[in-house]
# Entry
Amino acid sequence: MAHYRAPESKREQFRRYLEKAGVIDSLTNVLVALYEEPEKPNNALDFLKDHLGVAGAEPMDTEALHLELSELQQKCDLLTEENRDLRHRLQQYEPEPEDGTVE
# Structure
């Protein structure tokens, strides 16, 4: 039975694409790290995921970052409101320049 093979030019294009994107180097480095591991992990796929940056802890980090972002947005809103209030109070005590320019 004959197997279909993609033309070499498409294979070569894909290989160059992976090389240019750094995929080949990343995979090679992770596989070398796995090879050099003195005690091989029970699950090689988890090892690859962890070392390629697709670790299971990432969603926790993302969740923590979302929480921090939310807190910082609230703080920013409070500070913006405080700034607006202080500017309003300051305008009560400082008259506008007569020519209309802001100093």
Notes: Residues 8-56 form one domain.
